[in-house]
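Example complex used in Figure S2.
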Amino acid sequence: MKKKVLAMVMSAVLGVSMLGGCTDAASTGGSDAGTSGTTDGGESAGSDAGSNAGGETKEGVEESVPEQESVGGKLTGTLNLGMIGPLTGAAAIYGNAVKNGEQIAVDEINAISSDFQIQYNPQDDEHDAEKSVNAYNNLKDWNVQVIAGTVTTTPCVAVSAEANNDRIFMLTPSASSPDVVNGKDNVFQVCFADPNQGSASAKYIKDNNMATKVAIIYNNADAYSTGIYQTFNAKAGELGLEVVSTTTFTDDTANDFSVQLGDAQSAGADLVFLPIYYQPASLILQQASSMGYAPKFFGVDGMDGILTMEGFDASLAEGVILLTPFSADATDDLTKSFVGKYESGYGETPNQFAADGYDCPYAIYRALQFYADKNGDLDVTGKSAEEICTILISVFTNPNFSYDGVTGSGMVWTANGEVNKDPKAVVIQNGVYVGL
Amino acid sequence: MLANLINGISLGSVYAIIALGYTMVYGIAKMLNFAHGDVIMVGAYVAFCAITGLGWPPILAVLASVAVCTVLGIIIEGLAYKPLRNATSLAVLITAIGVSYFLQNAALLIWTSNTKVFPNIFADLPALQLGSTQVAPVTLITVLANIVIMLALTFFTSKTKMGKAMRAVSEDKGAATLMGINVNRTISMTFAIGSGLAAIAGVLLCTAYPTLMPTTGAMPGIKAFTAAVFGGIGSIPGAMLGGVLLGVIEIFGKAYISTQLSDAIVFAVLIIVLLVKPTGLLGRKVREKV
Amino acid sequence: MKALKNLKKQTKISFLNYGIVILFFIVVQILANLGMLTNSLKGQLIPILSYVIMALALNLVVGISGELSLGHAGFMSVGAFSGVVVSMSLAENVPNPGLRLLLAIVIGALLAGIAGVIIGIPVLRLNGDYLAIVTLAFGEIIKNVMNCLYVGVDKAGLHLSFKDAASMGMAADGKVLINGPMGATGVTKLSTFIAGTILLLLVLVIIQNLVNSRTGLAIMAIRDNRIAAEASGVPVTRHKLIAFVTSAAIAGAAGALYALNYSTIAPKKFDFNTSILILVFVVLGGIGNMTGSIIAAALLTVLPELLRKFSDYRMLIYAIVLILVMIASNNPKLRSIFDGLGKKAKKEEAAK
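Predicted assembly (1078 residues):
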C-alpha cells in the first residue's frame, strides 16, 4: 500500500516536472547550485577578474598607508563559510539569489589556489527568525567559522544577537536594518543601511528638484519597507519636501493598488516614492499606466531586479529612478564576468541580492588576505570561530582596508558595521539602467 | 466613488472565481480544500509556460492548463484524500495543508523562486469606457466568466445525472451508495471540476495581477475561502456574491478608512455579517438533529 | 464503580503526561551534562516547549470543547508582545530576570485571556466552519493591528500609537519597544529551559484538572451533544467560554515564553501559517489526546531540522511525510492493528 502511494507520488512529481520543461535550464541550474561544491567551477576568466580586483585593492592599500609594512604572509587552509537565508517560502527569491551569487564567488576563490579553500554551507530559514536561529545552530554544529548571511532583516536581527554572544563573525549581504549591526561589534553589512537609503533618497529628490509634491506607498507589514519609509519621512520633513499622500499595503493585499495610486493622483503628487521590493512595484507601475497616471517613480535598492523578471514589459518602467549599488548592465570586467557566469549557471540575470551575495565571500577572503599580508602566514584550518572573528573585526574596522566588488568600489566599513559606499542613482531608459 | 466601485468589482470578481471552485468542492465533498489556491498557482504556471515557453495561443494554453489541473485534481484526490474518506474532517483538512505545502515546494523546485510576469492575454481587446473611468478587459471577462460558470454549475448540479448524484452524495453518502451511486467516482469528479475551474481562475488572477511565484495562490486562496464563507459556503451564487462583496469592501475600506488597516476592516465586516447571519449571506440553514 | 475506574484511567493519563515532561527534562539535562546535546537541539528546546504548550492550549478548544480555531497564533501574538513590553519596560525596576520572566508570562497570559473573552463572546455563538472562519478572521485582525502598533517607554510611562513611532510623542530619552512591522528588537533573552518546563507542567496541571472537573465534563457533554446538554441545564456559552479563555490565556503564556527566547520578535511570525502549524500538532497527536499533542508538537518541531541534509528538497519531504502520516494514522487496517495491540497489552495487564 505504502509502496503504491509512494510510486504514485513519484510519478506525479515526474509528471509535474515534465510540465516544467519550459524552464528546464533555470531549474537544473538551481539544483546544481544546491550541492555546495568546494573546488570545481570557476572558469579562468572569472578568477582572472577576481585576482585583478584583488591586486588593485592591495596596491591601493599599500599606497595609502606606507607606514603599515607588508610582510607578505600567505593565506592557507580551509574556511567553513555558512550562509542563512530563505531558500523556500515567499521570500525564497532573495535567499536563492544570494546563495547563487555567493556560490559563484566561492567557486572562483577555490579555483584561484588550492592553498586556500572555502567550504560553503547554505541553510534555509524560510524568512522566519525561529528557523533562522535553528539554521544558525545547525551551522554551529558543522563548526562554522564565518557566516555570510543572513539575507532578510528580522531573521538577521535574531541571528546576529546569537552570533554576537558566540563570537562568530557575520557579514550580511542584504539585511539592511540598523538593528542588525547596532551594538554588535562582529556584525557587518554589505548593503546600505535603511536610514542611509531613506535619507539619501529624500536628499536626492530635494537636491535635484525632482518634485514639489511627493506620495509614498510602502509595505506596512515589512520591516525593510517601513524602515526606509520612516527615515525618508523624517528627512523629507527636515528638508521641507512636501509629502501629500502616504498609503500602505501588506503582503496579503499586494495585488490591487488602485486606491493608493488614486490617492496619490488626486493629491496631485508628481513623484511617487516606492521603498518596496520589485514584485509589488511592477504591479504598481502596470496599474498606474492603465490608469493613465504618469508621475515620476523613485525606488530604492529593492526595486533592482524589476527588469530581470521573466516576461516584464520594460516600457512600464521607463523613467523609473532608483538608488542601487549594482547594475547588471555595467561594463566593467568584474560585473561582466559575474553577470555572464550567473546567466550561464542559473539562466537569469542577477539582481542586487545576487550581487551583494557575490561580494560577501570575496570581502571575507580579501580581509583574511589583508591580515596575512600584514601579520604573516595565516592558516585558517582548525582556527576557532572566535579567533577568526577577532581577525576579521580588526581588518574590517581598519580604515586602510577597502574592498572593490560588484556593488561598489572602495567599500570601507565603520566600526558600527555599516558599509560606506555611495548609492548610485540610475534611471531606466529603454529597458536598461542609465547612470545619473 | 465609481472608480472605487469598479476597482472593487474587478478585485472581487477574481476572488469570486476562486471561491466558486472552493465552494463546489466544499458543497459536495464537505471538506475545506486548502490546497485549492495552490492548484490555481499550478494552473497559472502551466498557462505561462504554454504561452511564453511554447508560444501557444492563449486559448490553447488555457485549455492545456485546465486539462493539467483537472488531472492534478484527480491525482491529489486519489492519493491524498481518498484514503481518508472515513476519517474526521480535520484529518482531511491537515492533509489538504500537506498537499498545499507539497505543491508550493514542488513549484519552487520546478519553476524556481524567480518571479514571472504573466502575459496580458487580453491585450488586444478594448477597454470599456464608463464615464471617466475605464474598465479593463480582464475585469469584463472575469465577470463574464463568473456568470457563465455560476450558471453552468447551477445547471449541472440541478439538471444532469452526475450533478444530481453529487448533490445526493453531499446530502447523505450512505443513502447515495444505497441508491447505486458510486460515491468515490462522484467525489473524484467534483475534484476534477473544481480543479479545472482553478486553472481558469489562475489564468484570470494572473492576467489581472501579473506576478507569478510559487506562493501566488496562497493568499488569494485564503481570501477566496473567506469569500465563500461570506456568501454561505456550499452555495454557488453565494460564492460569487461573497467574492464580489469582499473585493468591494476591501477597496472601500482602503479608500475611505485606512490602507494600513484594510485587512482588519475586511475581516471585521465578515465577523459582523456572520454574527447577524450565521450561515453566510446565501447559506442554507441546516436543521439541528435531536 | 465504573466512574471510579474512569477517573482512575484519567489520573493515569495525567501522570503519564507529567512523566513524559519530567523524563524529557531529565534526559536533556543528562545529555547536556555529558556534552552530547547538539547546538541545533539546544536551540530548539524552548520553541519545542512553547509549541507543546500551544498545542495543549489548542487541544483544549479543538479536542475538549470541539470547536475548530484557526486563529490561535493571534493569542500567542498578544502574549508575546505584552510579555516583551513588560520585560523591557521593567528592565530597571525589576533586575531579577526570573521574576521579570514570571511577570512577563503572567501579564502575557492575562492580556491574551482578556482578548479571549472579547473574541470568545461573539465567536462562540457560531458553529462549525463558520466559527473556524471567524477565529481565522480574528487572527488576521490581530496580526494586522500588531503591524500598526507602536509602543514606547520613557520617564512618563508607556506610549502607544497606531500611526508611527514619531507620533507617540515621547521624551528624547524614550525607547521604542515595539516598532510596527519591525516588532521588538534588542529583547533580553529571559526564557530558560527550566522555566519553560515548569510552565509546561503548570499548564498540564491546569488543563488536566479542568478536563477532569465537573466543568470539564460539562464542556465535553456540550461537545458530544449540545442539545442534550442544554436540555439537562448545562449553561452552554459559559462553559464554552471557560475552555476558550483558558486556552487563550495559556497560548498567551506560551507566546511570552517564545518571544523572550529571541532577541527580536515580529508580528509576521504569528500568522495563519503558525495557527495551522499548531493545528497540525493537535490533529496529528490525536484530537482530545493531550499525550499525543505533547509528542506530536515536539517531533514535528524537530522534523524540519532533521531534514536539513536534504537541502532543496527539505520542505517537499516534510509535506510528503505529513500527508503519509495523516493517511497512515487514519488507515483502518493499521488502526485495528494498533487497537489490537493496545487491547492485548491491557488483557495481559489484567491477567497479572
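Residues 70 and 192 of chain B are 5 Å apart (CA to CA). Chain B touches chain A through 56 residues (CB under 8 Å).
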